[in-house]
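Moderator note: this is an archived Q&A kept for reference. The question asked for a predicted structure of one protein chain; the sequence and the answer are reproduced below.
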Amino acid sequence: MRTLLGTMIRVLAPLAPLFFKRVWEHVQVLVAGAILVPGKRTVSSALRAVGLDQEQRFHRYHRVLSRAKWSNTEASRVLTEWAFQLLLLVRRWHPGRQIVAVGDGRYASLKLLDRCRRLSEPITFIARLRLDAALYEPAPPRCSGQIGRPRLKGERLPNLSIFAEDPDTESQRSSSATSG
């Protein structure tokens, strides 16, 4: 069984408990292949990149994504925590600068966005949202003497589709250079 470099294994270690031991070995190979493969990242191209294109039991690698039991929710939680830790590093390296992080829809986690907003020097986060996403105002401050659990969110905002259709909504066209 081929394995990743020690450094990569240490970085991926928080994900190991999400998988059974035998599945984790296959995950490591797929991660290495996904890093090395040029172009489209499929299980077959990842195996080809690590020299396992002639593997007799290649179907076991496909099962990692199709049938292996692992917690997608827990994996999302771990990845979200990684993203936040990386953003904290960037914040530490560049104190006093405005930091704008851009992520795809997978990073539109309310917990991540709220943690970035609550930093002493907030990090602006741009993520793609669904048009029917439930958006809320920030939670109102707690009143003195108030009993019960503090509110986690404020008043509900209209859906993004309402803003998109409203002729009074100001918008600005922009573009950015992307790669990959």
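Archived answer notes: Helices lie at 6-12, 21-36, 43-49, 59-66, 72-93, 110-117, 160-165.
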